[in-house]
Design brief:
The protein is α+β, with helices and mostly antiparallel strands. It contains three helices and four strands; from the N terminus they run βααβββα.
Length: about 100
Amino acid sequence: MRKRFKLLPKAQIDLTSIIEYIATRSPDNAIKVFDQLHDAMQTLAGMPGMGHTREDLTDRPVRFWAVHSYLIVYRPDRVPLEVLRIVHGARDLKAILEEQ
């Protein structure tokens, strides 16, 4: 059985932007990255404690999980699991999380 997760609106925008950006260089890689991100979110929905906290970035009850250079930011205490953002690790995560 597939575990459930929900992309919040900003996470959906993030995912679309990431895949569109990668597709401009390599459509095949865009599909691979999409599949890997989707698989990671399925796994996290089944085992939400897998990620790590980042108290240096936020005191909110979120966890982080890396897939390549991207971080999935999610709420492990929600059913279905809520994905808040999917961002490149080089971005200003603290500022992005303060937008929420």
